[in-house]
Design brief:
The chain has 303 residues and is α/β, with parallel strands linked by helices. The protein folds into 2 domains: 11-143, Response regulator (Rossmann fold); 153-302, Chemotaxis protein chec. 37% of the residues lie in helices and 24% in strands. The protein has 11 helices and 11 strands. It has helices at 20-30, 46-54, 72-81, 98-106, 119-130, 148-159, 203-213, 218-227, 232-244, 246-252, 271-277; strands at 11-16, 38-43, 60-63, 88-93, 111-114, 166-169, 181-189, 197-202, 258-267, 283-290, 294-302. A 6-stranded antiparallel β-sheet has the order 6-10-11-8-7-9, sandwiched between helices. A 5-stranded parallel β-sheet has the order 2-1-3-4-5. Helix 3 links the parallel strand 3 (60-63) and strand 4. Helix 2 runs parallel beside helix 3 (72-81), helix 4 (98-106) runs antiparallel to helix 6 and helix 7 crosses helix 9. The longest helix is centred in the last third of the chain and has 13 residues, at 232-244. The chain starts with 10 loop residues before the first strand and ends with a strand.
């Protein structure tokens, strides 16, 4: 199925939201000259969106999450089940539950913008999608799923909404990057048995991830990093980060059918942690950089 005929160079966006006011707000932003020639169609439900797809594919769907009848995540899953693996779907939503947002990212959501939003946030997210190659025709070979650092960036973006950050891939997290306390998470096979994977975050990464997710005061996050004293809420949020990203983490290192077993703070001289981060087994290493906080380190290791 091809896209509907439009003037050459014009991109089409389908907006799905049960609020007419929100439809109008999104239309105003997207039809601004900042995006070039953009046609916007609005519908009020997931069911109406599927009907619109029968008339032709847009370049992008921008959907609410919570709507009567079919929800936004159900719309995304249905779009994928219909074979539109290349059709970009982004969310503009009040939903902030990390596990639900990860479900959207796992299903290939192009972006998640939280309501209320600034115009520039939506323009940046949509502009990034519309600058990519056009939607492929059915039967064309789909690109590989988003993996590695791109997938992690999306997860962290959902975890720390509104916080600017960079993720740098490939710089090994070794024992020289361990701090006084480090968060160590372990994963075991679904059927029980020995450890099959682990993840670790040093103290700056823990404080940035945990503190930003609970919207802690930036001064408290900086103090926790400097003094090595994360609050219990930061620690609990860091543990939840490793729990909720289990599917993504395991895909990074080629492990399947595993579950999150638990996580704890361990000291720099914890022998098993030092041996793990200094090893060269299957692993994925990342540096997390947040302006004002500095750099932290993350690693996912197959045991």
């Amino acid at each position: 199925m091809s896209t509907l005929a439009s003037p050459v160079g014009t991109r089409r966006v389908l907006v799905v939201d049960d609020s007419r006011a929100m439809q109008a707000i999104i239309r105003r932003v997207l039809e601004s000259q900042a995006l070039g020639r953009t046609e916007v169609e609005t519908v009020a439900s997931g069911e109406a969106a599927l009907d619109a797809l029968e008339r032709g594919l847009p370049n992008l769907i921008v959907s609410d999450w919570h709507m009567p009848g079919m929800s936004g995540i159900e719309l995304l899953q249905t779009v994928r089940q219909l074979g539109h693996s290349d059709l970009a779907v982004g969310f503009v939503t009040t939903e902030t539950t990390p596990s639900l947002l990860q479900q959207a990212l796992t299903n290939g959501a192009a972006f998640i913008v939280h309501k209320p939003f600034h115009d520039h946030e939506l323009l940046a997210a949509v502009g990034n999608v519309l600058s990519r190659p056009a939607v492929a025709e059915p039967g064309a070979v789909s690109p590989e799923p988003v993996q590695g650092v791109r997938a992690l960036r999306r997860f962290i973006q959902a975890w720390m909404p509104g916080v600017p950050f960079r993720v740098i891939e490939g710089e090994k997290f070794d024992s020289t990057h361990l701090t006084s306390q480090n968060l160590l998470a372990v994963y075991s096979p679904e059927e029980g048995g020995n450890l099959c994977a682990l993840a670790a975050a040093n103290l700056p990464a823990l404080c940035m991830l945990g503190g930003s997710a609970i919207q802690a005061d930036p001064k408290d996050i900086r103090r926790a990093i400097q003094d090595g004293t994360p609050s219990q809420e930061m620690i609990d949020s860091g543990i939840a980060f490793f729990r909720d990203m289990t599917p993504l983490l395991l895909s990074q290192i080629g492990v399947s059918d595993a579950r999150f077993k638990g996580a704890n703070l361990v000291a720099r001289d914890f022998a098993k942690l030092r041996a793990a981060v200094d090893s060269s087994v299957a692993r994925a290493d990342y540096r997390l950089s947040v302006p004002g906080y500095g750099d932290g380190r993350l690693v996912f290791i197959r045991a």
